[in-house]
């Protein structure tokens, strides 16, 4: 005879039990709520964003399709545009270049983006200006429209003058809202808007100037846009001109946000999984408290399965509540998000309730709660009926328990699956899951080790309340390890971020430090070198370093053309497309740079023929040195031959050496360096770096540059430093917020742990009071316990954080690592204080309640 | 009918077997009221646990109504208990999260949904004098009231055998006496076999038969002096 599974009974019992005793376990469900809320809001917002961007696709581009290139359009493309215009397709050219702009009234010089627009652009959307209705003023002669930031940066007002190249322009209005703006475009630098005619007159664009050339087309019919691709696709491709449709641009924007959203979702998932740890420890305590009741049920005939099911249903019930609350909070957050991110988002995001996201959140929350509860729930099966007669009776644990192994397997599989589904790429998700498991495992190991050391070496001479407090950590069935894990994880995430960020910041300060160049001039024409040099203070002129830049494309490698090479079906032997197609901005020089090291072959001796006269094509094969990485992408090695096209002339080279390059150094670095003697008379454009200590002096140099050489731009590295600092701070804030999320989950687990052991603590406190302990002594016991718990948990996380950053900083960022003890101590202080405060607040009952009623309360 | 044959139970203490019951033979007739007495550590509770199939013996077997309960799986024994066995414990062991009525309903519902279950449970509670306390939780009841709920629960499935472990051990004399009276009445009404473990000799004397244990063996086996019924079967 076997006991049947009495599902109806299990349901009724679960329902009845749920009226009671859930309060304490329920705290844990807040962590499930937290994780589900994060997941639901991120998922829903991702959907909202993708939909809104697609709805606004035409407005975002300002047109229906766009042609773009980083050099002026050639004849074929101009021909295509002309014929489209002739066929009645509205087209507008937009040229964007970075240049030095001077405000004569304040004497300020800044590098800005200048956009030259044709009438008509943008074809869709409404541009807001102040004063209102001034969009179009930029097309007028001598007028410019500017981003509001320009006014503040230059200290000027509408009506003042800006000098751009050879032109002096009056600021007609500010452009407050351009619907085509995507957040990061304006982040690069504020812009000024002028007409194409103004740009031509300014003479900003010299040979090889960095500029972007675009033509926007108004093609309301989707079929027309596609037809153009079908008809001219090959022409565009041949000319290396990009052709993009508005919906494609919207799609890639949405994809970007989707990718980011998936990263954020992983953080939500981490919080949810920490919540799962909390659920497991709550259920463990819950089941211990329910032991007598379970034993009675077994006595009066409930089978193992029925008892197990009754408690599994209770866990599921709780999980459903926690996840349901999470869905509600998540949907609320979804509504708030467009409002909170209003300044950053490129479109007005409309929110719509996403049933899919809500259902997924509910399902995932429920599943995480159940799968984590499963392991402690298996203890229900082990409660022997005899425990009703003998409370201290424990059934011997089975060595091999297939159900337990299955439960652990299910948990591992669930974590892997959830991470793989949430991550941008499944592999990334699996990596994330493994990293989570390793981090959790290591924190537990370090936590246990620290606890062991505390137990062994804690001074026996300490006062009794302190010893009692510390020994409370080792109380049977205490949740010390799960609290250590949850708090330690938060400390680990925050600690790693702070360490890595502090080290990057230090390294960057060094890069910009004394002795390093701090002014960079670019787009200098060959005949302007001495003129620009003369603008520098006399003492620094000699040290100003001049680097010629020649643009070259690959014509063939070992005799095979790029098309031929790309057709190779052997993936390992086929060069990567980007490396074959790119335009190489290369240089020629005799010596290796400071951050370079030859790793294969040998550098040329430097005694090559560098006398005047055109050397282009004079020697059949000259030497070239490639950066190690790009050589790998091109699948070439020392001794291979590469033929380059430099402004139409072919130059044959032999790879003589491979180099490593320290890309972090603020100096011009190159994939390909030609042997001197070949490129000297090829059309080139010069970069000059110099160091001018005095900030006033730097400003003066930049001002005189605007007047003397309008086509040359200067970059002041101290501004770059500011910009990088700003970006780093933003990144740190974002990641620290995520770290705080984990720490919050840790605190919730702590609150839950205190709540679940409340009865035990109350009884201990009552006993101590009965034996004569004073309030202050009980307070000392509690303080010592939470201080020790917080210290061990935080230390476990921080030890791991230090180890992780000591690996990440040199390996990923290729920088030297220094331990930031100050930052680490600060985190320790904050998390420990939080633990002590939460612990004391959670235990205030213990101080307040008189001992007798507590001792008389029957154990539940 | 309960039959124990060569029943032995060893616990391990310090790596050595510690015999608690030594090859004990016992036969209890249907509808009998047997008290098991003996000093602490004599094996009373162990015997009760084995007779009810709550623990497995080291030697011997137990037949309840002719069925060898240790030939069954643990779940099989649970199923047997649902249909045939009731319990009363010293510490009452009510489920604190259920009302009095729900506690009485537990064994009935475990057996499977039955028509009139609720009325039956209410009747039992009324029978033990708690007609007005159906919706009260254990924490709202006195010790005596809790034990009365436990009695109602024990009889809920009309068990053939009722095991009672020190049912008055946690109660004062007067309350204990009223509980015992109620137990006897219910037992006679339901014609249940009652096995009662107790320290209280006065209570034991009310049984048909008193089995006295010492060091895991039966030291004496005699009729109770105050028994209201003649001995049914003895060994």
Description:
The complex is a heterodimer of chains A (860) and B (235). By secondary structure, chain A is α+β, with helices and mostly antiparallel strands. Chain A folds into four domains: 1-64 and 219-441, no CATH class; 93-202 and 212-218, no CATH class; 458-515 and 718-860, no CATH class; 544-690, no CATH class. Helices cover 55% and strands 16% of the residues of chain A. Chain A has 27 helices and 20 strands. A six-stranded mixed beta barrel of chain A has the order 2-3-8-5-7-6, surrounded by four helices. A six-stranded mixed β-barrel of chain A has the order 12-13-18-15-17-16. The model of chain A is unreliable at 606-619 (pLDDT under 50). By secondary structure, chain B is of the alpha/beta class. Chain B is globular, with a radius of gyration of 18 Å. Chain B has a six-stranded mixed β-sheet. A four-stranded antiparallel β-sheet of chain B has the order 2-1-4-5, covered by helices on one side. The model of chain B is unreliable at 231-235 (pLDDT under 50). Chain B has a single domain, classed as Rossmann fold (3-Layer(aba) Sandwich), CATH 3.40.50. Chain B is 33% helix and 28% strand. The A-B interface holds A 1-4, 6, 8-9, 12-13, 16-17, 19-21, 292-293, 295-306, 384-386, 388-390, 858, 860 and B 45, 48-49, 52, 54-55, 72-76, 78-83, 85-87, 89, 91, 93, 95-98, 102, 106-107, 109-113, 139, 153, 165.
């Amino acid at each position: 005879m076997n006991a049947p599974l009495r599902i109806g009974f299990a349901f009724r019992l679960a329902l009845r039990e749920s009226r009671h005793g859930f309060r304490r376990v329920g705290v844990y469900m807040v962590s499930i709520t937290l994780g589900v809320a994060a997941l639901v809001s991120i998922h829903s917002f991702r959907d909202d964003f993708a939909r809104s961007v697609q709805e606004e696709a035409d407005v975002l581009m300002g047109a229906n399709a766009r042609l773009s290139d980083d050099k002026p359009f050639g004849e074929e493309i101009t021909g295509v545009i002309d014929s489209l215009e002739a066929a009645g397709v509205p087209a507008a050219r937009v040229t964007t270049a970075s240049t030095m702009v001077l405000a004569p009234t304040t004497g300020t010089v800044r590098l800005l983006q200048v956009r030259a627009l044709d009438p008509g652009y943008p074809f869709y959307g409404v541009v807001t200006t102040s004063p209102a209705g001034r969009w179009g003023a930029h097309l007028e002669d001598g007028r410019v429209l500017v981003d509001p930031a320009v006014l503040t940066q230059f200290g000027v007002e509408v009506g003042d003058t800006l000098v751009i190249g050879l032109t002096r322009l009056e600021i007609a209005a500010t452009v407050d809202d351009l619907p085509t703006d995507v957040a990061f475009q304006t982040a690069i630098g504020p812009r000024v808007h002028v007409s194409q005619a103004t740009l031509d007159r300014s003479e900003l664009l010299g040979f090889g100037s960095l500029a972007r050339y675009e033509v926007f087309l108004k093609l309301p019919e989707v079929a027309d846009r596609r037809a153009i691709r079908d008809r001219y696709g090959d022409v565009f491709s041949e000319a290396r001109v990009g052709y993009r449709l508005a919906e494609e641009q919207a799609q890639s924007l949405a994809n970007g946000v989707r990718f980011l959203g998936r990263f954020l979702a992983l953080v939500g998932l981490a919080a949810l999984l920490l919540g799962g740890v909390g659920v497991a420890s709550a259920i463990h305590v819950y089941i211990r408290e329910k032991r007598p009741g379970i034993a009675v049920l077994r006595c009066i005939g409930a089978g193992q399965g029925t008892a197990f099911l009754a408690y599994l249903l209770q866990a599921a019930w709780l999980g459903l509540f926690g996840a349901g609350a999470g869905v509600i909070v998540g949907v609320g957050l979804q509504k708030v998000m467009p409002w909170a991110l209003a300044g950053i988002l490129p479109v007005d995001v409309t929110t719509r309730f996403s049933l899919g996201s809500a259902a997924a959140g509910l399902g995932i929350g429920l599943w995480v709660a159940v799968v984590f509860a499963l392991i402690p729930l298996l203890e229900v099966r082990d409660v022997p009926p005899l425990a009703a007669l003998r409370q201290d009776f424990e059934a011997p644990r089975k060595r091999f328990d297939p159900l337990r192994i299955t439960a652990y397997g299910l948990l591992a599989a669930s974590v892997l699956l959830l991470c793989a589904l949430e991550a941008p790429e499944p592999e990334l998700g699996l990596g994330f899951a493994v990293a989570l498991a390793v981090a959790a495992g290591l924190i537990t190991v370090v936590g246990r080790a620290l606890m062991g050391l505390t137990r062994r070496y804690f001074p026996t001479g300490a006062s009794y309340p302190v010893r009692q407090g510390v020994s409370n950590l080792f109380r049977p069935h205490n949740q010390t390890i799960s609290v250590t894990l949850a708090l330690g994880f938060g400390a680990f995430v925050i600690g790693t971020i702070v360490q890595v960020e502090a080290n990057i910041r230090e390294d960057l300060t060094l890069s910009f430090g004394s002795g390093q160049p701090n002014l960079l001039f670019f787009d200098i024409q060959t005949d302007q070198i001495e003129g620009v040099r003369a603008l520098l203070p006399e003492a620094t002129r000699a040290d100003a370093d001049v680097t010629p830049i020649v643009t070259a494309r690959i014509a063939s490698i070992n005799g095979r053309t790029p098309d031929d090479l790309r057709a190779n079906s052997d993936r390992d032997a086929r060069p990567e497309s980007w490396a074959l197609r790119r335009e190489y901005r290369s240089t020629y020089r005799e010596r290796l740079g400071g951050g370079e090291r030859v790793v294969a072959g040998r550098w040329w001796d430097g005694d090559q023929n560098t006398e005047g006269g055109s050397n282009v094509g004079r020697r059949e094969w000259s030497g070239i040195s490639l950066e190690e990485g790009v050589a790998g992408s091109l699948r070439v090695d020392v001794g291979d031959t590469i033929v380059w096209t430099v402004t139409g002339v072919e130059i044959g080279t032999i790879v003589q050496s491979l180099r490593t390059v320290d890309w972090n150094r603020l100096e011009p670095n190159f994939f390909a360096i030609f042997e001197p003697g070949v490129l000297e008379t090829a059309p080139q454009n010069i970069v000059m770096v110099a160091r001018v200590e005095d900030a006033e002096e730097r400003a003066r140099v930049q001002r005189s540059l605007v007047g003397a050489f309008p086509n040359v731009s200067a970059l002041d590295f101290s501004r770059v430093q500011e910009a990088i600092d700003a970006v780093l701070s933003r990144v740190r804030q974002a990641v620290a917020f995520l770290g705080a999320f984990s720490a919050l989950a840790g605190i919730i687990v702590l609150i839950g742990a205190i709540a679940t052991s409340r009865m035990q603590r109350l009884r201990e406190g009552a006993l101590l009071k009965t034996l004569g302990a004073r309030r202050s002594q009980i307070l000392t016991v509690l303080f010592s316990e939470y201080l020790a718990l917080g210290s061990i948990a935080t230390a476990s996380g921080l030890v791991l954080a230090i180890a992780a950053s000591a690996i990440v900083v040199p390996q990923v960022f290729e920088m030297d690592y220094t331990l930031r003890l100050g930052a680490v101590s600060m985190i320790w202080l904050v998390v420990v204080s939080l633990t002590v405060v939460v612990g004391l607040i959670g235990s205030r009952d213990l101080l307040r309640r008189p001992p007798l009623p507590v001792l008389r309360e029957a154990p539940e | 009918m309960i039959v124990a044959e060569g029943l032995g139970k060893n616990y391990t203490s310090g790596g050595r077997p510690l015999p608690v019951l030594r090859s004990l033979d016992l036969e209890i007739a249907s509808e009998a009221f047997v008290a098991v007495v003996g000093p602490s550590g004599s094996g009373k509770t162990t015997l009760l646990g084995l007779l009810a199939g709550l623990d497995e013996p080291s030697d011997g077997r137990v037949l309840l109504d002719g069925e060898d309960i240790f030939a069954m799986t643990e779940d099989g024994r649970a199923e047997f208990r649902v249909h045939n066995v009731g319990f009363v414990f010293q510490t009452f062991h009510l489920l604190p999260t259920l009302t009095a009525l729900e506690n009485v309903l537990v064994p009935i519902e475990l057996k499977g949904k039955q028509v009139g279950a609720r009325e039956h449970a209410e009747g039992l509670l009324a029978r033990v004098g708690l007609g007005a306390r159906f919706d009260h939780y254990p924490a709202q009841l006195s010790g005596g009231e809790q034990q009365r709920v436990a009695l109602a629960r024990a009889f809920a499935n009309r068990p053939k055998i009722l095991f009672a472990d020190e049912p008055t051990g946690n109660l004062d004399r007067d309350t204990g006496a009223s509980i015992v009276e109620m137990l006897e009445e219910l037992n006679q009404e339901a014609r249940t076999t009652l096995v009662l473990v107790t320290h209280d000799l006065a209570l034991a004397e009310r049984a048909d038969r008193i089995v006295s244990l010492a060091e895991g063996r039966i030291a004496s086996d005699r009729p109770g002096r105050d028994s209201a019924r003649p001995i049914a079967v003895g060994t």
